[in-house]
Amino acid sequence: MYLQSSYMPNYFAIDDILATQERTPCKFVVNVPALGIKLNPSAEGDDIQIGTTLELPMWLIQQLARGRQPVVAVDLPQMYQEAYREVLKADPRAVNLHKFGLYFYELGSYAKEFDNKREVGDILIHNSTLTSKYLQ
Prior knowledge:
- The chain is an alpha+beta fold and 136 residues long.
- The protein has 6 helices and 3 strands.
- The chain is elongated and about 50 Å long.
């Protein structure tokens, strides 16, 4: 789906639901009792220890990373990490965004919240602008 200029996340929109199902790596910064088996079926104990890295859906990570004391530290999804940014800055005709994911722009609108360098938003705007320019 092409990102519309007026895209707003919507709890009831199927595209938004599918975009936030994308698993994103995160590291737990506090101990979490009794959720080890539920969030990580291969866990040995019932608790999640500090430093445990898991891939969780974006909708869950948003809730765990909020508040005065966040439970997780979020890593950007692989398609928005620095190694891929140079590829994404290339000519839009040379990059197949479907290889990065069907909901590249939608997931990016959530991932930019966790980007300390503020580069994900720039990449989304850059690619969206150039792609729409070539489609006209």
